[in-house]
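Journal club prep — side note

Before the paper discussion, L.F. wants everyone to see what a predicted structure for a comparable chain looks like in token form. Sequence:
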Amino acid sequence: MKLKPVLLSLVIMLTLSGCYGKFLSFVYSDKEIEVVRIHGKYPEVEVFDLRQHISEQEIKRPGLFAMPGWKDMAYPKLTEEHKAEITKAIRRQFTNEGENYKVTCVLRNSMQKISVRFFKNRIFVTVELEVFLNDDKNKLIDSFRTIEYLEYKSGSMLKENIDLLYNKALRNAVHICFINLNKIDNIKSKNQYYRNSNIIKYSK
């Protein structure tokens, strides 16, 4: 009889571990992303935050016994980690050989939201991003603006989940912008788009 609580705890730990493994696979696989291969050196990257709403505090995580209906929302500050995610996503679009370019990335809006439901918790993030591609003389070649939405439902709610999903949304938004830069066809490589599920591997 004394073993039952131990076995129950073990089952819960294994279940949560399996859920978190699926979540990590989702946020790091990025199989849905198409990558533009621009024949150019890794560009100089500038990131600007022009959002009207920025939260003073980070989003709250629900407690272990949070009831269905609990929710919280935040407009996260732009951190150095966020800038690094954006910069890495931009540089993946280039072959790192050839011409010099400059990329300006403007964060127009973003939001994080957590809500508690029966059996499943919902994490939701949105990112509105605009990318400007300039030549080596700082002349604008093209720009594109997009809004990326991501949602994930899970039985567990770990502290890192919302941040990892938000970083994924930042990467996705960058890729979508580059895919839609129509005026750079003459500087893309012949194999301009390709699925990159095996080559690009994101690590913590």
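L.F.'s comment for the group: The longest strand covers residues 102-116. Keep this in mind when we get to the figures.
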